[in-house]
Model the fold of this input.
Amino acid sequence: MPADKRTIGVCNGGGDCPGLNAVIRAVVRSAIIVHGWTVIGVKNGFNGLIWPEQSEELTTASVRGILAQGGTILGTTNRGNPFNYPVVENGQTVFKDFSGRCMDNMSRLGIDAMVVIGGDGTLHIANEFAELGMNVVGVPKTIDNDLAATEVTFGFDTALHVATEAIDRLHTTAESHHRVMILEVMGREAGWIALHSGLAGEADVILIPEIPFTIETVCEAIQRHEAAGRLFSLIVVAEGAKLPPHDARGNPFPTALQGQVANAIGWGVREYLGKDVRVTVLGHVQRGGSPSPFDRILATRFGVHAVDLVAKRQYGRMVCLCAGRIESVTLAHAIGVPKLVDPACDHIHAARSLGVSFGDRP
Ligand code: F6P
Done:
């Protein structure tokens, strides 16, 4: 048994993401196999530190068979910020700071370092804990791929496969009925899933938060395709794409359609072109199910590297992918800067060169 017998904790926060279980498995197995440590699974975000009875030891047996499983065996929440935790008291929601309690319970559980897997919000919390003195290492996760400090996050590739398959399926039905099909994919801040799936699935129009568009220009693209003999169109839109203030006739969109970007665009196109339009909102299908081989491998490399950092006591850092290698950056450097699609990037140049419209007039 190695001399440095330690206990580490692992938790994940925010929305789930294909590959979370692969990270957890990698953390548990490498901590036990390489170092002989004990690993505590902290359940439901940081809740397992607020209520330590929710936490439990993870062994190689607990993580057997989870590599290919979607979701997370730890459970998760995106309403569990321990620094500002919502609690109902006398019928009112009040916000409490449970951070000190988390620090105390971490000691009580004998945990001397935490591996925290999360997107920007969770990593922000991890950084706040680091400032309080918690030994913490972060692992980036989000299907949106919008974390600046890493080339790619695990979960993105799986979501991309799901979105691309959806476009492929919409293609055949759109073509048969000569319809306009609109697919809304996830991506609140950034259009990575829409851009990549739109390119891979041969979309005619791709609408992303980074490029302002008008309904008129979208309709013109559809008309151009029709004039060239293609009687159907496929539009992929990121959920965070910003609706223009007016439809193609200059009328404001009905307020009911705000926040439902694909439905609003569908309404606008139908009104202006009188075309048969159908809308699909892909939603959480993109987050569920088994991770792709790429995501399983990236997540595994991240998990092992996070344990390596703990072994070297390099805390306050987040693992990341940099030029194909697993590296790390400080948590402070990793948070708060969303990685947006650069409208001048070569993916967009390639798409435009093939006649794809982004709903703008470049
Ligand atoms: O950040 C990941 C993400 O899937 C976004 O793409 C999406 O807007 C959001 O989470 C959905 O969150 P929820 O599961 O809380 O509806």
Remarks:
- The chain has a mean pLDDT of 96.
- The pocket of 6-O-phosphono-beta-D-fructofuranose is lined by residues 15, 78, 119, 142-144, 186-188, 239, 287 (CB under 6 Å).
- The chain is about 35% helix and 20% strand.
